Amino acid sequence: MSTRRRTAAALAAVAVGGLCFGPVFGLRSLLLPVLVVCLAVYAVTELCRYRPTLLTWRPLLVVVAGLLATIETVLRSTTLAGLPTAETIRALGRGLTAWQLTLESTWPARPDPDLVVFVPLLVLLAALLVVELLDRTPPLVGVLPGVAVAGIAQAYIALSGFTAVLVALAFGVVIAALLVPDSSRKPRRSLTPLIAGAVVTVVAVVGALAVGAADPLERTPYTLQQAQSVAAPATRQASPLDELAGRLDRRSKDTVVFRYRAPSPVGRWRQVALDNFDGANWTTDHPILRLGSELTPGPEVRVQVEPQRAEVEVKELRGPWLPGQLLPSSVRGASEPQIEPIGGTLLTGEVPDRYELTWSKPKVDAKLLLASGIDADAPGGLGDLGAVPNEVAALATDALAGRRATFATALALESYMRKRYKLASTDPLPTGHSWPQLRRFLLDDEPGTSEQFAAGYVALARANGIPARLVVGFRAPTTADADGWYTVRNGDALAWPEVAVDGVGWWPLDPSGQAAAGKSVVPGSDTDVTDQARREVPPVNEIQDPEVAPPSESSRDNDGWDRPDVPVLGIFVVSVALLLLWLLGVPLLKTLRAVRRKRRPGNAAVVGAWAEARDRLRAHGVAVTSGMTVRDLALAAGDVTDERASAGLAVVANSVDRALWSGGQAGPEVSREAWAGVREVRRGLRTRPLADRLQAALELRSLWRLSGGDRLRRAVAADR
After folding, report:
1. Residue in 195, 191, 165, 203 with CA at minimum distance from that of residue 577
2. Is 40:65 a contact under the CB 8 Å cutoff?
3. Pairing state between β 338-340 and 289-290
4. Distance of CA 38 to CAs 59, 65, 123, 128, Å?
5. Side-chain-side CA neighbours of residue 161 (13 Å)
């Protein structure tokens, strides 16, 4: 059986790999099941160590112990007084497909047992492989199952920053523990395993930094969610954009849609964001995911945010779309809520009577907006527009006089539409958002509702390189009812465009001027901030390309270790140089040392042969003390040397006796005989396994002198 140390080290690697799923479920949800499964497997190995007759049953015992550990830590709610039931067996069966369900959720996912269970099952499989591989393969193979588990976790979400460094360090320690040689005698402490682990760690960390720095596009790491999330159940129904005209109808505009209560008024409530336009319909194809335990703003939002909360009471609102906000964090009170994270769209299969919504609100002022550029990489912001009429393309160019796409030009386009086009106010209200309706609105000066204003704005903005999308929702009242709730009606339905602002994310505009029509503006709301910025925008022909505001200190803190401000190239070059120095320098130093010893005069050359043989064996793990003779060394090296090497040591011992105890200086033939024995020792050591020979060649400690001096060296000095 493998030693306790190697078994514990390899199982620790599996545990580290399992904990790499921390960003998916949260570390607290995984810590207990992962550690308990690994401890249960280790307990089985100890049992088999004390009862060797159980070795043939070890794989089965490992599986049973691991499953029991999984049941007690994850699926205990399915047990009866701690004992597995039929529901427990079904839950374990569902765990085989839980990895797919996890991919269909935002992260961190809800720590539901039906989702979490696949991680300890994966850890159990890896632990079983570890236990069996350690008894049949070289020690380093035992770390591969743990690396495989960590690799699967990286396919879910790639670790970065300080967390990735810690994981690399952990695997480095495991490798060092696996490389420490075993010996029945008390071995000398070798630094080679520690150095090997350190080199692996440094190369992994620096290589990751170098690869990250060498990616000029700063692309998002691949995740399995990109391929699997499209399979998430999504009850797509009629778009709220198609229902907008019906809500604004005179006969239904007073119908209460929903009510909400919040510590402060909310400017808008969104239902859906649409960024695909084929000339006839506005849609979106971003994946819809199950909402996890909490959703945080994406990397595109680099400004500070503040938490917001509201309680929503649904009245006359059909599903699956729920009133929401751009950056939702969590939803409580709704059954199986789903979300389209790019657009902030909330959905549910069954519309709840009441739910609580929390979200993040960017802290932005007018000055920052005006100094900001646009985010051309925003998903869907510069999507297709279908067959754009030539007259509309010319209109888009004239509207902004060829100015560069910035937030200031986005506001200028909004002001252009407010001044040029009229808002329809009489029945029947115009409907439609395809090119025929937009052509009549944009070119023939027909009045339009917010539907035509928003769709027309997105078309003109994209034609000018401004990333924009269309959003449907409701404007919210600024005053509460007597009971403290705000009432939203069909007549408050609204469509508006959003533009992607660099560092801020998506920002709403109001080309129809309807978001606060007839109402006071909520102080500090996006409408209020936009109004302040709009007043500072000069005429379009006077707009200058602004300088992008540098990131604030808080945003740098939020970036963490993802893009460390360190000389990555310098660290990489120095690390590679140190690695090459070790790989090439250590063997070269040992060769030069042997040449120097061989060229010594007289008895010193014989002593040099003895020292060379001794250090060669030290490099192969033989425990050597300062008081050993050549024959003592031959006995200590019995487990390492073969017959040829033993014969070589005997030749060296003979030569040492002739040189040091004959009473005179040894002739050249004695030196040649001693070094011939050294050659035999080296040839004998070449029969050892390749891994042992590589370790000996790169071993550092044998380059240092033994503490306490050398008895033979003192004898040579006395003879002189």
Report:
1. 203
2. yes
3. antiparallel
4. 14, 10, 8, 10
5. 9
- The residues, any chain, with a CB within 8 Å of residue 180's CB and separated by 6 or more, are 5, 190, 193
**Is residue 379 within 8 Å of 299, Cβ to Cβ?**
no
Q: Which residues pair with 312 in a beta bridge?
A: 260, 355
> 485 with 467: CB under 8 angstroms?
no
Cα four-point dihedral sign 247, 248, 250, 253: positive
Cβ-based neighbours of 317, under 8 Å, separated by 6 or more: 257, 258, 323, 351
**3-state secondary structure at position 473:** strand
Are 127 and 40 in contact by the 8 Å Cβ rule? The answer is: no
The per-residue pLDDT for range 357-413, each reduced to its tens digit, is 999 999 999 999 988 889 999 999 998 888 889 999 899 988 888 788 889 999 999
The reported pLDDT for the residue numbered 694 is 85
The DSSP bridge partners found for residue 129 are none
- How is residue 190 annotated by DSSP? P
| Nearest alpha-carbon partner for 193 in 38, 45, 20, 6 | 6
Retrieve residue 531's tokens: 């109004």
Largest CA distance in the chain: 126
Question: Cα-Cα-Cα-Cα dihedral of 319, 325, 327, 330, to 10°?
Answer: -60
CA-CA distance, 129 to 115, in Å (whole number)? 23
Contact 473, 268 (CB under 8 A): yes
Q: Is 411 helix (H, G, I), strand (E, B) or coil?
A: helix
Q: How many residues does the chain have?
A: 720
pLDDT digits (tens, 9 = 90+) for 135-190: 888 888 999 999 999 999 998 888 877 888 889 889 988 988 887 766 544 444 44
DSSP 3-state of 354: strand
- % helix, strand, coil for the chain, step of 5: 50, 10, 35
Q: Is the torsion defined by CA of 628, 633, 634, 635 positive or negative?
A: positive
Which candidate, 320, 356, 293, places its Cα nearest to that of 234?
320
Write the CA distances from 535 to 192, 367, 415, 649, integer angstroms. 69, 11, 10, 94
Structure tokens at 16: 């580290």
The first and second tokens of residue 438, run together, are 């937009």
CA atoms within 13 A on the CB side of 59: 7
**Residue 16 CB neighbour total at 10 angstroms:** 24
Measured in whole angstroms, how far is the alpha carbon of residue 214 from the centre of its chain?
18
User: Is residue 389 a contact partner of residue 439, using CB atoms and an 8 Å limit?
Assistant: yes
Question: Smallest Cα–Cα separation from 284: which of 328, 331, 337, 241?
Answer: 241
701 by Cβ neighbours in 10 Å (0-12 / 13-18 / 19+) ranks as middle
Radius of gyration from C-alpha coordinates of the chain: 37
Which 3 state secondary structure label does DSSP give 182? Answer: coil
What is the spatial distance between Cα 457 and Cα 460, in angstroms, rounded to a whole number? 5
477 SS3 class: coil
Q: Are 399 and 421 in contact (CB under 8 A)?
A: no
